[in-house]
Every structure is written in C-alpha cells, then in structure tokens.
Amino acid sequence: MQASSQEQYIEFGIEQEQYAIRIQDIHEIIKIQEITAIPNVTDYVKGVINLRGRIVPVISLRCLFGSEEAEYTKSSRIVVIHHLEEAVGIIVDRVNKVTTFTDIQPPPERVGGVQGSFFTGIGLAESGLVGILRLDEVLLHE
Amino acid sequence: MLSEYREVFLEELEEQLQLMDEEILKLEREEDSSRIVQALFRAAHTLKGSSAAMGFDIMKQLTHEMEQLLDLVRSGKRTVTGVLIDRLFQALDHLKLLKLDIVDGGGGAGIDISACVRQLQSFANGTEDAEAAETVELPEIEEITGYAETGAAKAKPVLALNYRLKASECLDQGRQVNWISVRISSSCPIKGARAFVIQSSLAELGEVLYTQPDLEDLEEQAEGATEILYLHAGDLGQEELKAFTLALMDVEAVLVEAVSFEEIELVQPSTVQTAAKTAGPDEGSVQTSGKAKSQTIRVSVERLEHLMNLVGELVIDQTRIHQVERTQRRRFSDDSVEELGHISDHLSRIIGDLQESVMKTRMLPIEQLFNRFPRMVRDLSRDLGKEIELVIEGKDTELDRTLIEEIADPLIHLIRNAVDHGIEDPGVRTANGKPAKGTLTIRAAHEDNQVVIYVEDDGAGIHAEKIRASAIAKGVISPEEASYLSEMESVDLIFSPGFSTAAVVSEVSGRGVGMDIVKSHIEKLNGLIEIHTTVGKGTTFKIKLPLTLAIIEGLLVKLAAQTFIIPMSNISEIVRVTREDIVTVRGQSVILLRNQVIPVAWIHEYFQLPKSSAAKQNISLVIVGSAEKRLALVVDELIGNQEIVIKSLGSYIGKVTGIAGGTILGDGSVALIMEIAGIIAKMGGKTVS
Fold first, then answer.
1. Between B166 and B504, whose confidence is greater?
2. Do B124 and B84 touch, CB atoms closer than 8 A?
3. What is the 8-class DSSP label of residue B158?
4. How far is CA B619 from CA B567, B591, B599, B615, in A?
5. ipTM entry
6. Weakest-pLDDT range from B8-12, B494-498, B511-515, B680-684
7. Looking at beta carbons, which residues of chain A come within 8 Å of B657?
8. Shortest CA gap B649–chain A (Å)
C-alpha cells in the first residue's frame, strides 16, 4: 500500500462522502448530458449516452451505494472510466480535485453504510477519509 | 508466402469441387456427355496438379485415379453408367473430406481413401487395357543405365540474348554455369509439378537461369519419361551437382555439362534462331492479358467491416448536418443557409452512394449457397425413392456474406422437409393425377430493399387438421387451445419447439427440431417467414431478410417522450384505428385485420413508460412480425423512417430482452432499437383467435 502513495487520484463526492479513482483509469470527465433510459435493466444502470459517436452506458453511484436519487445539479458530472476495453460513465454529485494520499488503510467491513468490498482502501487526506473505489467490484456488482 | 498459396489453392479447390458436383449431376442426366467428361477430366487434372504442388499427396493420389478413369471414359474405353456416376460422387465426397481436413490445417492424412481408390481402379481395370499399360511401363525403367551416354548427344537449345547475358555474368563472377539434363521417371504422375520442385531445389544451390522446355508448358505434355534441361549457375562442381540432383525424388538420370563459350556468346547467332525464340516473350504477354481478365483483389473481411463502420459514422453525421440545416433555415433565410442546404443535399447523395458501394463489397450472389442444393436434392430423392425436379431461380441475387452463411442451415432444413414430407412418392402422385416427378423451386429475389427467398414444392401441402391433432398428442397445445386456432395458425404450429409432423421419424428429416431451428435462425437475422399451403397442391415457404445487418432501415416512433426504432424488416404494415376497433378476447386486446386476429400490445408497460395513448381516440398501430408471429404495437407517434447504424450497447449492459441495440440520431441523442423477436416472446407469445 505504501507504493501507491505517489499515485494520483481524482477525488469526487456523493452526498457528504468523498471517493476517489486512480487517474489512469479515468478516460474523461463530462457534464451531465441527455441519458437514454434502457428498460428492464438493473436500477443503478441509468441508461446510455452518446460520447462523440460512441454509445456509453452510465451508472449512478448514488443508487449503487443505496442513497436516495437526487436531481442532477450544476456540479453533477459523469466520470468516464475505461474498464475492460469499454467506456462506462459513473454519475457523481461533484468532482473535487486531483489528489495523492500520504497513507492508505485497508478498508473496514463497511464504509459509511456501503459494503467494504467496493473499496481497495481508505485514503487519508487533509479533508478527511476518502474511499478509493475498486472498479472491478463497482462495475460488476450484481 | 506458403499460406498465401494455400488460400489460392483452397479457393481453386472449392471452385473445382463445385464444378465437378455440377458436371457429375449433368452427366447423370446425360446431356452431351463427351463435353462433360472432358470438363470433369480437366477439373481432376487441375486439382491433381495443384494438390501435388502444395504437397497434399493423398488428394493428388485420388485425383490421379479420377483422372485415369475419366481418361478411359473420354477415349471411349468405358461408358457412362450409373455405377460410374456413383463412383465419381464417392470420390468427390472424399475430396470434400480431404478439403475440410486441409482447411483445418491437416494434410488429409487422416482420411482413408484406399477403398475409394480401389473402387475407382477396379472400375477402370474392367478390361485388359489398363493392365497392358502397366506392362508397357516396365522396359522403360530398365533403360536408365544407358541414359548417360545417349543423353550426352542431346542438343542444347540456342539461348536468347538475355539468358546469354545472365550466364556470362555468372561466369564473370566466378560461378560455375552448367547444363543439367534431368530425366523424370515415367511413373511420376505429375511431371510438371516435379519439374518445379527440382527447379526450386536447384535454386537453393544457386540460380536456375533457364529451362527447356518451359516448365509452364510441361504439365500438358507429361506422357512417358520426361527430360528437362536446366541451365544452372552455382558454386558446386559438376560431380556434386549430379549427386545432389540424382538424390531428388522421381529423378531417373542426370547429366551435368559445363556450358560452352559459344553458347553464351553475346553475338546474335542468326536471325532464324532468334525468330524461333521470340515465342518466349509472346507467351508472357498472353499470360498477363489472361490475368487482366479477372480484376479482383482479396481484401480481409475485417477491413471491409471497418470501412462499413466508418460509413456508418458518416451516415450519422450526415443526418446531423441535415438537422442543423433545417433549424438554421427556420431561423434565417440568407444565401449561406441556402448554400448549406445544397451542400447537405450533395453530401447525402454521395454518402448514400458510398454506403451502397461499401455494402456491395460485402455482397455475394446467393449462387454459392444455391449451388449446393442440386446434389443434396439428388441424394435425398434417391434415398427416399422420389422423383424430383429442382428448379433454381435468381441465383445472382446478392446479399450480405454473413447472411448467406446464416441462412444456409434454415434453407437446408426447409429443402429436406420439402423433399421428405412435402413431395409425395411417385405412385401417390400419379394416383392423385399429378405428374410422377415432383417440382421443388428455390427462388431468390430482391423486393423493396429486402431479400426474399422462396422454397416451393408441388407436394401434398400441410393438413391443418393433422397438425392440430399431432400438436395435441405431443402436448404442444391443449385441445381447448387447439379449438380456437384458425387453419393458418394451426399450420404455424410446425414452428413450435418439439414438433414433428412425420408419423415415422425418417433419417432425412423429422427429428422434430427442424422447423423450430429454422424459426430461431430467421428471428436472429431479423427476418420473417410465412407459409402458404394448399392441401394437395403444395407448400411455399417465404423468407424475408434484410439486405445487410450493419445498417438497417428503421421506423422512428415515439413512446411517451422517448424515441424508439423499429427495424423496417420486421414491419408488415402500419394502420391507424379507433379505440373501438381494439377488442378484448379472453383478456387479451386484439385487432381484426383482414380476417386475421392480431394481438395488440401496449409496450409502454413493458418499457416502463407512461401509457399516454390510452386516452386517445385514434391509435397508430405498427404491425410487426418475427418469423411467423405477428403483433400490433401501439405507438404514440410515428416520426418517419431513416437509415440507421446499429450499435451495440456494449458488454457492460449486455443482452436486454426487447432491445437489439442503439443508434445515434441526427440530434445527437441515443435511440434504442427494438428487438421484435424478444418483444413478441414477452408480450404476444401466443397467437390468439
């Protein structure tokens, strides 16, 4: 875990909590745009968007983490990540900054009401604790 | 390099096998048999040459036997009989097996052709001619020892100027230039190929400057022992060269002589001799013009697919430009908007042409599939003791290559069924006042941007009553359900899983899975299938398929506020009805359309959208179909039709029942494409009467 201390992360927030994803996993961050809903899929899959001619699915982290859905605001963003050669968008309430962590702790069983397996670790930052997402688990969650 | 030749070889093989198939069938009908035998002989000969050159010895052996046999027939020593035709078909089947083995990367070693070869030989050896030929060969082999002396006398050809230049150049470089005279054994079946092999072996030791005769000509005249003269430049001494060459396969004798200075003098020997030599370059020009005839290049499918994707992107952008142009026109009216309109129109024409051209590169005539059927029908009708005339129409109808592959199995099923269940035994037919010979017609055609394939027989037709009874007996439907079914719907029961109409399961068809598979295949291709049958007169299956799979014509409709696309190939018609036209029968909303009862589906529910049409007086219905099922979809608004590019929703979302994929519309938003087969399965699985 020490080796990762120099790694850069994008820190973003949902409700009062802060989360992070390694910067090299992120393709780009875009504003909320028109989402075409897909019927009969898992509820946290919100639909698909047109990302410059590509059809990209978007998921709601709020929904996945069991929080109430909220209206998208001016600060809402879609974090587009690369996962298994495919782009997937994650809707978040706000994107804070690029950051590094001086220390990363293994995740506890539960992180603020969210199961611990969604995280690779908990990063310690000046602003507080940040949950570092384990993308495999977040995206493949059944 | 070798794999490249392999591709060419396989292509040629396929072509020749197909040709043999057709010719043997023709031979059976005895139309101008001498011409056909000649064609078959040529095909066998060609394959013998190419398989030997590729080192597929087993195939070479088999084609050699075929060639021998056909030669006897050609020269009138054997006559065309049913046995001969069977032998030829048998050999052809073995060749096909060998081909499959070669395609899989084998050399054909796993295929046992000995029995087949024996039968060919025993047929060929029916008289003493063949034995006589064998005994004649023996003395020739004894001659070998005397060869070296006699061979020395063989006159060397006069070399053309360019060969002289090359030879003297090699001598200047300190290399040895020798004439190598090689006699290829008369037992070698393909001397032409052997001569090439020897040439390439010699080339490993240096350079082969010239051969006499030209190896290109050799194949045709390969009778008895053949002598070939190579002009070789290399570093090896004469003795070593001789030993090396003698060790090669099928080489009976070798004579190595140093080239003399007179032979490679740079002075023109005499005008007469050069005139004789000009034949060489002439031949070359003939060959190139022969090649020019077929101006094709081979392109990998991936490249075409990539090209198709790019065109797809262009189509999307074009619709967007068009949209922008329309909004601009509404707002402003000046010259630049006018110009934008012209450009947009022009662009759409060009993109349309481009799309069509790219699509055409993926299109193949259905011929290559249809050509498999004559043999199949022949074998089937023979096995079943039926007389069937196969009529094939519209062979040159073109469709996407993937579609051709996908439609092969369903068509084969339908044809087997028609031969097995459709067309009656000759006795039954004559008793019913029909000609003893049944007719099976397979026809392909383009109809409104779709491909339609008919499989039509003049057989017994399908008895709706029998189907119903059989379906009840097999538990496919309950007696109560059956009583509601119309004739047409009863006939459609043959598409149900686990259904077979044949009382006795025959070897040909009737395993009870056939029609079910036909249906699912056609559904997968977004196609439709219809049955028209008249008892005692015959049955027609009509299959409708889209021209291509990547870009489709779609109908844009609105459900609530969301735009959906229905593939045009699934739409049978669009109607506008009033609320009262939709009635409820046993809990199911249905509509009566030209005496056909079609279930009505509010897909809003299924797509979890508000059911806004419920309050309206006039309702638009899109009658869709998949394979044999029909369903009327209620839509809130019809927008229009448009070419669309199907894009997958990606593996993250995976397969969603009822959604075939998405596409990007002119305004940049994503619209979902309905998967009609899935929707029908969910909403209107049952046909209701």
1. B166
2. no
3. P
4. 20, 12, 14, 10
5. 0.85
6. B511-515
7. 40
8. 6
pLDDT tens string B297-309? 777 878 887 887 7
pLDDT at B688: 38
Residue A21 burial (CB < 10 Å; 0-12/13-18/19+)? buried
Q: How confident is the model at residue B275 (pLDDT cuts 50, 70, 90)?
A: very low
φ/ψ bin of B505: left (φ > 0), alpha (ψ from -120 to 50), beta (otherwise): beta
Q: CB-based burial of residue B360 (10 Å sphere; 0-12 exposed, 13-18 middle, 19+ buried)?
A: exposed
CB-CB under 8 Å, A50 with B649: no
In what side-by-side order are the strands of the sheet with B388-393? B388-393, B438-447, B450-457, B538-546, B528-534
Q: Tell how strand B226-234 and strand B176-184 pair up.
A: antiparallel
Residue of chain A whose Cα is closest to the Cα of B647: A55
Domains of chain B by range and CATH? 2-130 (1.20.120.160), 148-267 (3.30.70.1110), 301-361 (1.10.287), 373-462+501-546 (3.30.565.10), 551-683 (2.40.50.180)
The pairing of beta strand B588-593 with beta strand B251-258: unpaired
> What is the pLDDT, as a whole number, of residue B319?
79
| Residues A67-71: contacts with CB under 8 Å, at least 24 apart | A67/A14, A67/A15
Query: How many whole angstroms separate alpha carbon A127 and alpha carbon B331?
Result: 51
Mean pLDDT, rounded, for B506-534: 71
Distance between terminal CA atoms of chain A? 28
Strand partners, B537: none
Query: Is B652–A57 a contact, with Cβ atoms under 8 angstroms apart?
Result: yes
The phi and psi torsions of B545 (rounded to 5 degrees) equal -130, 150
Whether A50 has its CB under 8 Å from any CB of chain B: the answer is: yes
The CA distance from B648 to the nearest CA of chain A, in Å, is 8
CA distance B321 to B325: 6
CB–CB of B515/B494 below 8 Å?
A: yes
Q: What is the pLDDT of residues B119-134, one digit of tens each?
A: 888 877 764 344 333 3
CB atoms within 10 A of CB B118: 11
Contact A86 B608 (CB under 8 A): no
The tokens for B517 are 């598979």
Encoded tokens for B206: 């240096």
**Contact assessment for residue B630 and residue B643, using Cβ atoms and an 8 Å cutoff:** no
What is the Cα–Cα distance from B556 to A55, expressed in whole angstroms? 18
**Catalytic annotation, residues of B:** 45, 67, 417
Task: Quote the CA–CA distance of A112 and A15 in Å, as a whole number.
Answer: 11
- More confidently predicted of B219 and B379: B379
Q: Which residues pair with B212 in a beta bridge?
A: B229
Q: How far apart are CA B75 and CA B329, in angstroms?
A: 80
Q: How confident is the model at residue B256 (pLDDT cuts 50, 70, 90)?
A: confident
Helix (H) or strand (E) holding A80: strand A77-83
Q: Which of residues 626-665 of B touch A (CB under 8 A)?
A: 647-653, 656-659, 662, 664
Q: Which residue has the higher pLDDT, B164 or B353?
A: B353
Alpha-carbon distance of B304 to B551, in angstroms, equals: 14
Write the residue in A53, A83, A139 that is nearest to B664 by C-beta.
A53
Task: Write the single-letter amino acid at B181.
Answer: S
Query: All domains of chain A, ordered by start, with CATH?
Result: 2-140 (2.40.50.180)
Residue A128 has pLDDT above 60, yes or no: yes
d(CA B688, CA B489) in angstroms, rounded, equals 9
For residues B370-391, give the mean pLDDT.
87
